[in-house]
Amino acid sequence: MTETTHHRICPLCEACCGLEIKVRDQQVVSIRGHEADVLSRGYICPKAVALKDLHEDPDRLRTPRIKRNGVFVEATWEEAFAEIEKRLPPLIAAHGPNATSVAVGNPSAHKIGLLTYFGKLARALGTKNVFSASTLDQMPKQLASGLMFGHWLSTALPDISRTELLLVIGANPLASNGSMWTVPDFKGKAKALQARGGQLVVIDPRRTETAAMADAHHFIRPGADVFLLAAMVHTLFAEGLVTLGRVAEWVKGTDEVKAAIAPFTPEAVATRCGMGADTIRTLARQLARTPRAAVYARIGTCTQEYGTLASWLVDVLNTLTGHLDMEGGMLFAKSAAFASNTAGKPGVGKGVSTGRHHARVSGAPEVYGELPITCLAEEIETPGEGQIRALITVATNPVLSSPNGPRLAAALEQLDFMVSLDIYLNETTRHADVILPGLSPLEDMHYDVAFPQLSWRNHARYSPPVLPRPEGQPDEWQTLLKIAAIAKGMGAQADANALDDAQFEEDAQRMFGPHAAAIVAATQGLRGPQRTLDVALRSGPYGDQFGQKPEGLNLAKVMLANESGGIDLGELQPRIPEMLRTPSGKVELAPPLLLQDLQRAAQDLRRPAPDLVIIGRRDVRTNNSWMHNLPTLAKGPFRCTALVHPDDAARHGVQDGALATLRNGARSVQAQVQISDQMMPGVVSLPHGWGHNLPGAQLRVAAERPGANINALLDDQLRDPLSGNAVLGGVGISMEAA
Ligand SMILES: Nc1nc2c(c(=O)[nH]1)N[C@H]1C(S)=C(S)[C@@H](COP(=O)(O)OP(=O)(O)OC[C@H]3O[C@@H](n4cnc5c(=O)[nH]c(N)nc54)[C@H](O)[C@@H]3O)O[C@H]1N2
Ligand SMILES: Nc1nc2c(c(=O)[nH]1)N[C@H]1C(S)=C(S)[C@@H](COP(=O)(O)OP(=O)(O)OC[C@H]3O[C@@H](n4cnc5c(=O)[nH]c(N)nc54)[C@H](O)[C@@H]3O)O[C@H]1N2
Ligand code: SF4
Ligand SMILES: [Mo]
Cα-flanking dihedrals φ and ψ of residue 338, to 5°? Predict the structure, then answer.
């Protein structure tokens, strides 16, 4: 058979690299970077090659499973949907919609069918119990961006190809390949910045791969970023360095920030940060005096008690130094489809709010339609009106990825009914009654819904399926619609395509009013996410407006461009005020919710830091909890080690290569020690996503070297109160030889 060449967006991380995949006899023979790709220009990391392993993994599920008498048996799709129909609607009838819940995880961001149809399932269930990995990750950044700029995905991005100074805080893009910032080949771009005389500065409790290539690296005590950032803002005011630049007339709240920041002098925060007051002042001055500069912060600054405050202060710094919405500073992407900051009236909007409802047990507020995923266990365990009795998981493994996983595992066993849409029988899905597998990414079409809103360059790229799908296997969006129909009492026989047509017509009516019929006619022959995408592209900022702008984009044009690497829509450009969606039409520099929380931080200034704390880590050959079963990535040195500074090792009597017991109150794990001067003294680093030794999972490669689960140590009750995000770092532990 002849070899065919295919181009596919890599679905494994936020860099979204363009791949070139060669196929012979329906077998993948090679995976390389696509040189012509407009976003990634041929760059890939070692994970891309593992897509072949993923596709061929004998442990990957291809048919549904139903648990009968405690044992999973293979089932047909009809049997699986019939089982859901037998068990879900009666439960809703008896206990109401809030007895159900849904949890969605990270891989769904890389599958257009899951991302665009998950909400339809949540709405059909009618439950307020919606959870996702966002509250283990970036919710603080989304809330801060939403309050300042008016929408949850309006995130300011470093203009890396033109900046002269990039300050990176709590991110390690050399391992993670970037997050809330789609920037394939960060390393190449950072080197180019250095080659033109610019500087990369990193603030991290570990001398990471990114820190090692930086011009300067400063250790910081985990969880202290809010204090560092506040003191930098303080310095700007104290030294007359504040300048708003081109956005001055659209910025509101500078004086309020100045007043609120008063307690945070560099001297007041220095001990807490583990940094000298002079260093803090110098950083602020350097930022203010460099005409093209950008501050980028990521998960290290989000997964802490003051995550929303830290995320906000990053953009306060960017704004007060005149770098917001400036070339070479921080800019906003202009996405071809799906972006709320290109829809509706330019320059003004509803803004964002939180707390439309609250978690039953903890009282935590709803944020972006979700409750904190760390509330899930207690919502299942605690009896009373609204107790969760059924759970549907979609591409998530919270037993490993969420703090206090063992408690959650026990809670899942108490459920009356659990369904998992997942490709593995793993630590979480082993608790399900029904598992419904999704297609391999190579069998599925794709367009990134979220990441073009976060990309270093504007673009539009579509990937058709590379390989044919197994006969009879539905699309994941069809599976979601089927469960939605069953929940609404329409039965397991409901036709997903007919439902989709009906919902599309309703949506078109709502969005396009008198033009709805024309829109339906214009998208004839399309269905599911393809149809949603065509409408989004055509009505988007570069769209053909259904023929009114014939030179504009539509799905057919983007599809045609696949082979030549997609459609390049150019460098990011200044977008304020047009992109703002705040009710005031301004950049809200001083949202009251945040000023209030800053007082909590001020009261906390003198709290002594614990003696020894734990933080997380990523490795380029891993991806959260689910890629340890792929041989290409699993081989090589053992990666789930606890990095310990030599002084801490001596103090606590632990040896390199030996096991140590790490304790947090009554919880403990054992991990292999790796002594390393990369660590700030007093800080231990252990990666997450490990702990593949739980009974009942079917992950044969991962089980060979299971590793320790850091989340068995962490506390599900520690959250950033504003965003509901879990605290995953800076938690005090003790350590001793095992
Ligand atoms: N301590 C600590 N914990 C952390 C973090 C940390 O830094 N420290 N990071 C957090 C972050 S940022 C995140 S995003 C979360 C991630 O946590 P989750 O969102 O739970 O993601 P994973 O743990 O990777 O689990 C992904 C699940 O999706 C399934 N899956 C993979 N591909 C597909 C597919 O195509 N279709 C379907 N239906 N299922 C699929 C996998 O089998 C697996 O069950 O972890 C968080 N947990
Ligand atoms: N190879 C690989 N790539 C991934 C993933 C993966 O698991 N593996 N996961 C993906 C996901 S879901 C996400 S969300 C992104 C995350 O992408 P990044 O945000 O780049 O994540 P990390 O590589 O964990 O980098 C976080 C850094 O914060 C530091 N840190 C910890 N605590 C603190 C603190 O209190 N303050 C400061 N300043 N720094 C701190 C850590 O030492 C670490 O170097 O990565 C994505 N990409
Ligand atoms: S960096 Fe690696 S995993 Fe991420 S998209 Fe690119 S090739 Fe895929
Ligand atoms: Mo994440």
Answer: 75, 0
Output the CA 17–ligand 3 centroid distance in Å: 5
Look at residues 141, 99, 130, 129 and name the one whose alpha carbon lies nearest to residue 14. Answer: 141
- Considering the domain architecture, whether residues 192 and 258 belong to the same structural domain is answered as yes
How far is ligand 4, taken at its centre, from the CA of residue 398, in Å? 12
Cα 88 to Cα 169: distance, rounded to the nearest angstrom: 45
Residues 588 and 680 in one domain: no
CA of 16 to the centre of ligand 3 (A): 6
Instruction: Indicate which CATH number applies to the domain containing 234.
Output: 3.40.228.10
Is 626 close to ligand 1, i.e. is its CB under 6 Å away?
Answer: yes
- The answer to whether the beta carbons of residues 160 and 183 sit under 8 Å apart is yes
Flag whether 589 is in a domain. Answer: yes
Percent of the chain with pLDDT over 70: 100
Mutate to test the pocket of ligand 2, among 110, 618, 676, 685 (most ligand atoms within 8 A of CB): 618
Residue 23 lies in a domain: no
Output the pLDDT for position 607: 86
Q: How far is the CA of 298 from the centre of ligand 2 (A)?
A: 7
SS3 state at 262: coil
586 with 715, same domain: the answer is no
| Nearest atom of ligand 1 to the alpha carbon of 110 | 35
Residues contacting residue 592 through CB under 8 Å, at least 6 positions apart: none
Q: Which atom of ligand 1 is the closest one to the Cα of 394?
A: 38
Which residue carries 């005409």 as its tokens? 291
Segment 510-528 shows an average pLDDT of 94
Structural domain contains residue 28: no
**Would 98 be classed as within a structural domain?**
no
The tens digit of pLDDT for each residue in 257-304 reads 999 999 999 999 999 999 999 999 999 999 999 999 999 999 999 999
User: Which residue's CA is the closest to the ligand 2 atom numbered 16?
Assistant: 179
The residue to mutate among 108, 118, 206, 396, having the most atoms of ligand 1 within 8 angstroms of its beta carbon, is 396
pLDDT higher than threshold 90 for residue 672: yes
Rounded to whole angstroms, how far apart are CA atoms 25 and 23?
7
Query: Atom 19 in ligand 1: which residue has the minimum CA distance?
Result: 105
Q: Are residues 733 and 597 in the same domain?
A: no
Please check whether residue 574 is in contact with residue 326, taking contact to mean a CB–CB distance below 8 angstroms: yes
pLDDT band at 345 (very low <50, low <70, confident <90, very high): very high
pLDDT at 614: 98
Mean pLDDT of the chain: 97
**Which structural domain, as residue segments, surrounds residue 715?**
613-737
Q: Are 607 and 32 in contact (CB under 8 A)?
A: no
Q: Which residues lie near ion ligand 4 (Cβ < 5 Å)?
A: 137
Spatial neighbors of 481 by CB under 8 A, at least 6 apart, are 117, 120, 121, 496, 499, 500
Ligand in closest contact with the CA of 446: 1
Digit-coded pLDDT (tens) for 209-268: 999 999 999 999 999 999 999 999 999 999 999 999 999 999 999 999 999 999 999 999
HSE, side-chain direction, 13 A CA sphere, residue 69: 0
Q: How confident is the model at residue 1 (pLDDT cuts 50, 70, 90)?
A: confident
Pair (593, 618) in one structural domain? no
Query: Percentages helix, strand, coil for the chain, rounded to the nearest 5?
Result: 40, 20, 45
Instruction: Kindly report, residue by residue over 181-207, the tens digit of the pLDDT.
Output: 999 999 999 999 999 999 999 999 999
Q: Are residues 587 and 620 in the same domain?
A: no
Q: What residue owns the CA closest to ligand 2's atom 38? A: 170
711 Cβ closer than 6 Å to some ligand 1 atom: yes
Question: Which residues fall within 8 angstroms of residue 212, CB to CB, at 6 or more apart?
Answer: none
Output the ligand 2 site: residues, CB below 6 A: 13-14, 106, 137, 169-173, 175-177, 179, 203-206, 208, 220, 222-223, 225, 298-301, 304, 615-616, 618-620, 622-624, 729-730
Secondary element (H or E) of residue 120: helix 112-125
